[in-house]
Amino acid sequence: MVALLTANPDSRMGKIADIVVRILAPNKATGSAGKSDQPMTTLNEQCLQIFFDALVLLLMHEMGETAESMWARHSRLE
Q1: 78 is catalytic
Q2: Chain segment 19-47, per-residue pLDDT in tens
Q3: pLDDT at 36
Q4: What are phi and psi of 72, to 5 degrees?
Q5: Contacts of 9 by beta carbon, 8 Å cutoff, 6+ apart
Q6: Would you say 2 and 18 are in contact if contact means Cβ atoms under 8 Å apart?
Q7: What is the pLDDT of residue 32?
Q8: pLDDT given at position 42
Q9: Domain boundaries, the chain
């Protein structure tokens, strides 16, 4: 299964992906579309950060994880 986060769901990758999540924020393809005063693709990166934070919270809930259980494993890997 291929999942894609993109601003351009009609791209080559978008056409082969099983799941496409469209991120409506300025990017290289749209330039300054989205009316942000932030430089270049900063708003796009912030949108992706929020999306992935929300995804992690959903996965934590589904998997019965807590911040503490994740920190315990993280500490061992450092």
Answers
A1: no
A2: 999 988 777 776 655 567 878 778 888 98
A3: 74
A4: -60, -45
A5: 20, 22
A6: yes
A7: 55
A8: 83
A9: 3-77
Q: Are 22 and 44 in contact (CB under 8 A)?
A: no
CA distances to 15, 36, 73 from 18, in Å:
8, 30, 31
Radius of gyration (C-alpha) of the chain in whole angstroms: 16
Candidates 45, 65, 68, 78; catalytic one: 45
Nearest by Cα to 29 from 11, 46, 5: 11
pTM: 0.71
**Range list of β-strands (E), the chain:** 3-6, 19-22
The structure tokens listed for 30 are: 């749209």
Place of tokens 């579309």: 33
Rounded mean pLDDT, 42-71: 92
% of the chain residues with pLDDT over 90: 46
